[in-house]
Specification:
Elements (H helix, E strand, L loop, with lengths): L1 E5 L3 H11 L5 E6 L12 E4 L5 H10 L4 E4 L6 H14 L3 E4 L11 E5 L2 H7 L6 E4 L15 E6 L11 E5 L6 H10 L4 E5 L8 H8 L3 E5 L9 E2 L2 H13 L2
Parallel strand pairs: 1-2, 1-4, 2-3, 4-5, 5-12, 6-11, 7-8, 7-10, 8-9, 10-11
Helix pairs in contact: 1-7, 2-3, 5-6
This protein binds NADP nicotinamide-adenine-dinucleotide phosphate.
The site of NADP nicotinamide-adenine-dinucleotide phosphate has 23 residues, from β2 and α3.
């Protein structure tokens, strides 16, 4: 089977590696092309938007795609909606590979909010110095804030940004000792994160808990109505079941 993986996540790279080693499949991974120096999956890679669901459906048909795994980030809402629509249009089966969100543990002081605007509105009641780890998109929601921000992202963010901000360019995985040291060094009062899930960036949650800091957790957008699996293993099994039924 020819499998299109919509990527940009660790799970997408892991799945590409598994399928690349399997003679039953050929695989092409698709990246948005937003990150300057992306971690590339093994195997064939295409980069850049498709130009909307109609164009993506044409791409699937034109490239003989037999199945699609949407392994994009849980907050990459547009591409997932686009992929669901394109796959239906092209008559290609699609599964969403979505890792589970994080769950609150004893000692956590979480405040769940629906979006970045709600996070920005809540922050003044929680502290003065903010560790903002929601990525470089959507930072305009914090631009009017008087608080101080440590903004961590992979590539430099574009304005508008908060007036009092320091940008830290970095990418995971992160460690508990590293995250705890960062929180202490910058005298952080409150952490803001998306509910991205997964182990690679979870250390900040442990560090905040350890220091007794509140954490604002932005809820995930609703996924499209398509079959969902939570792990790479389950995605491979889903693909195998498609191979068997062909
Ligand atoms: P988005 O808002 O859902 O997508 C915007 C547009 O970018 C899509 O309509 C599509 O363009 C293009 N696109 C996105 N992902 C693509 C892919 N894998 N292959 C080809 N085109 C893609 O997405 P986003 O939030 O900007 O995220 C972009 C990429 O970064 C995703 O691959 C995602 O997995 C990764 N990422 C996102 C986040 C996050 O928090 N949002 C965090 C980590 C990684 P067309 O309409 O032209 O096809």
């Amino acid at each position: 089977m020819k499998v299109l993986i919509l990527g940009g996540t660790g799970e997408a790279r892991e799945l590409a590696a598994v399928l690349h080693a399997d003679p039953h499949h050929t695989v092409v991974s698709s990246l948005a092309g937003r990150v300057r120096d992306p971690k590339l999956p093994v195997g064939e890679v295409r980069v850049g938007g498709f130009g909307g669901p109609e164009r993506m459906a044409e791409w699937m048909t034109g490239h003989g795609v037999d199945a699609v795994v949407d392994a994009t980030h849980p907050f990459a809402e547009r591409i997932s909606a686009s992929a669901a629509s394109a796959a239906a249009r092209a008559g290609v089966p699609l599964v969403l590979l979505r890792r589970p969100g994080w769950t609150e543990r004893p000692g956590d002081r979480w405040h769940r909010v629906p979006d970045l605007a709600a996070a920005a509105a809540l922050l003044p009641s929680l502290g003065e110095r903010v560790f903002l780890t929601t990525g470089r998109q959507g930072l305009a929601a914090f631009a009017e804030s008087d608080l101080w921000f440590l903004i961590r992202c992979v590539d430099p963010p574009e304005p508008p940004l908060p007036a009092r901000a320091q940008v830290l360019l970095d990418r995971g995985p992160y460690t508990l000792s590293g995250e705890s040291a960062l929180l202490r060094e910058h005298r952080i009062d409150v952490l803001v994160t998306k509910d991205s899930g997964g182990p690679l960036t979870a250390a900040k949650l442990d560090a905040a808990r350890g220091l007794g800091l509140p954490t604002v957790v932005v809820d995930r957008p609703s996924p499209p109505e398509v079959p969902v699996v939570a792990t790479v293993v389950a995605a491979v099994e889903w693909l195998s079941s498609r191979t068997r039924s062909r």
